[in-house]
Amino acid sequence: MRVPLIAGNWKMNGSLALVEQFGQAFGKAALSSSMDVAILPPLPYLAAAQTAFEKTPLRLGAQTVNPELSGAYTGEVSASMLAEFGVHYVLVGHSERRSLYHEDDSAVLARAQAVLSEGLTPILCVGETLAERDEERTETVVLNQVKTVFDTLDAQQRQHVVIAYEPVWAIGTGRTATPEQAQAVHAAIRDCLADYDEQMASTLRLLYGGSMKRENAAELLAQPDIDGGLIGGASLKVDDFLAICQSAG
Ligand code: PEP
Predict the structure, then answer these.
(1) pLDDT at residue 159 in the model
(2) CA 30 – ligand 1 centroid, Å
(3) Is the CB of 233 under 6 A from ligand 1?
(4) Could you say which of 96, 128, 132, 166 is catalytic?
(5) pLDDT (tens digit per residue) in 117-129
(6) Whose CA is nearest to atom 4 of ligand 1?
(7) Which of 230, 235, 237 is the pocket-test mutation for ligand 1 (most atoms within 8 Å of CB)?
(8) pLDDT exceeding 90 applies to what percent of the chain?
(9) How far is CA 39 from the centre of its chain?
(10) What's the per-residue H, E or C state across 124-193?
(11) 43 CB contacts (<8 Å, ≥6 apart)?
(12) Does any ligand 1 atom lie closer than 6 A to the CB of residue 66?
């Protein structure tokens, strides 16, 4: 039984007021107890969110991490620092980090290892570009991104990863993968995970991300291999995000 996870990636958006608004709304929201919900605010809001979300089902996540433990890395934060603020999930390999900040597969792996070494959960983002989909290379690209990380992690570490399939052409574009397109890639990822360990493959959570919103969440989440969502734009409006959570619960 896989517990659904809905995670809101605020990217470089939000404010202290939005943190408070989410704390208040989720403090009184009726949500299923058999689901996980997280907000990944910008790093400066972590302390305020830790307090505001204390009596809510919201868990905290971070959008990035440096693989090093400490040192002369101006502007960066380590996994142990995130852990001190009660962070539970950390994105690694988000397509914006891959393309804008040149984080390649080895950088993604190093970040996943750093996150796991602090007992936190990496959300490993994978996904193909539109050109790669048009060239019918979706599975090759996505499964390579998964394998780069999973080949190096040990069996124990693998169990603690969440994977988010996010077609790059669907992120922030308003263009969503159809439930069938998303399900096909999720099923391919789960098959690939089964080559490592069938038990791990059957319990590991696979999220869909890419213009998921209140209008399309239910049909995406109804797919057998979609265990939740990574939500960008629609996680900035509390009513929309709540509605998506309610479709998962
Ligand atoms: C994301 O940033 O991971 C994302 C899925 O964004 P959006 O929902 O806005 O497409």
Answers:
(1) 97
(2) 25
(3) yes
(4) 166
(5) 999 999 999 999 9
(6) 232
(7) 230
(8) 96
(9) 10
(10) EEECCCHHHHHCCCHHHHHHHHHHHHHCCCCHHHHCCCEEEECCHHHCCCCCCCCHHHHHHHHHHHHHHH
(11) 62, 63, 64, 77
(12) no
- Asked whether the predicted pLDDT for residue 30 surpasses 90, the reply is no
Output the DSSP codes for 70-91: SSS-TT--BHHHHHHTTEEEEE
pLDDT of residue 33: 87
The mean pLDDT of 150-174, rounded to a whole number, is: 96
- Sign of the Cα torsion 44, 45, 46, 48 reads positive
pLDDT confidence of residue 174 = 87
212 CB under 6 A from ligand 1? yes
The per-residue pLDDT for range 77-96, each reduced to its tens digit, is 999 999 999 999 999 999 99
